[in-house]
Write a structure and sequence with these properties.
Length: 232
Amino acid sequence: MTDAVTTRDQPLIAIDVVPMSFSAAGLLVATARRQYDPYAGQEALPGVLLHPAERLTDAARRALRTKAGIGPETVRHLAQIGAFDGPERDPRNAAISIAFVAVADSPAVAGRASDASEAAPSGAQPSAVWRDAAGAEPSLPFDHDRIIEAALDHARTRLWRDTALTRALLGPRFTTADAARLQTGLTGSAPDPGNLNRSLRTNAALVRSAEPAASAPGRRGGRPPVTWTWQG
């Protein structure tokens, strides 16, 4: 007697990435226009199906490069934020998404959301459309709205505790005002100035810079803003 051969339908494994950036323009997230069905022509997170012998992080970098035009040289930090499932999240087949957040260099003005309504010409290089995180595109295909919220929650709960993530968002040198703007962008409310200054002064990963930051445009006189750099 021989054992019966049983075949099972396996779900697709998708890799979806939330590009995130912080600069003078604020806290931004990005989407990219889908070129193929399902949902061709709609904005969605850059994502790919995992190749059989591919590592998850390699697939995430491939998604950024091929779907949003974000090259590896611009990615400051890449981290897995969770898995998302559900039998109806992908009309092609049952699919599980392994989601990442990628902190990238600040986008050019040409990549802001004002360009999103313009259809990309045939054969054009993929490009990201950046939006204020608080006003991210609603009703994205699949469950990408939920993935963006998870990415923002990941950054919100790990701010300052995760040095690599926080450093990637703020850059190598930042002001106290920059730190306040980032925290406001993630939490929706401005931090108490006294508490924030105390947290910065007592953070062992930070050094108060002896060199004052350049004055903001339109700033006249007064004490120059306090700047911070990272240890190491």
